[in-house]
Amino acid sequence: MSGTAEPLIEPGQLAAELARPDPPTLLDVRWRLTGPPGRDDYAAGHLLAAVFVDLDTELCGPPGAAGRHPLPDPAALQAALRAAGVRAGHPVVVYDGGDGMAAARAWWTLRWAGHRPVRLLHGGFPAWVAAGLPVSTEPPTPAPGDVTVAPGALPVLDAAAAARLAAADTGTLLDVRAAPRYRGETEPIDPVAGHLPGAVNLPAPEYVTDGRFPAAEVLRERFAAAGVAPAAPVGAYCGSGVTAAQAVLALHLAGRPDAALYVGSWSEWVADPRRPVATGETPGG
Questions:
Q1: How many CB atoms lie within 10 A of CB 170?
Q2: What pLDDT shows up at residue 3?
């Protein structure tokens, strides 16, 4: 597997690969923005040999001025991935509770870190269970991995670059949060409501449904309708860079591997009161 040709894997295909002598490494990254931690779900049942990796503390840096889910420290990420058994050049499959957001951020983080052979289990843990495939409550003891984190393998936007892209005549910055948050009508998490001036709203349910992606042609049509031009720069942001990572995955599926993630997203943008905030239906506010 090249690691780039197909970012998704279906349960039946994964089951077949797990039966081989040298199966892919499995990472369980179930996570919720609010509510019980994903580790509780993992303890109740997980794919055989899957290792739990925590999105908040192992795949992201500490929250702060850089946002609620900033980039991880490369050395800390490397240690976490090695502890989970990730090996250099060896395939990894990530999965979550089914909505695909945490798994997409894990997929993006490994790709950003230079690990190319990583795929997302399409439909997550529920799809695996629905297929009648086995689960376990026993945590595995993986052999230590030897992956080397080399950050920068996928494009990243900082606040200044996100602002430039949003304001550019060519290029599109997608805001994939719910429309009321974009319009500035409500903000349940961050201290300020609204959007980056010039950003275009494309709520996540318009390109992914219950963690499942439509065909590439459908994705291309949906992104084109939002103003994404084939040869123009494109990036995405959300509240803290998790849902937007799923948008970047969708853009990869649509043939745009150059799509950039504004990792800090809205939670970083509003941490500085000097940054402008737009409201209303239109990108200009």
A1: 9
A2: 37
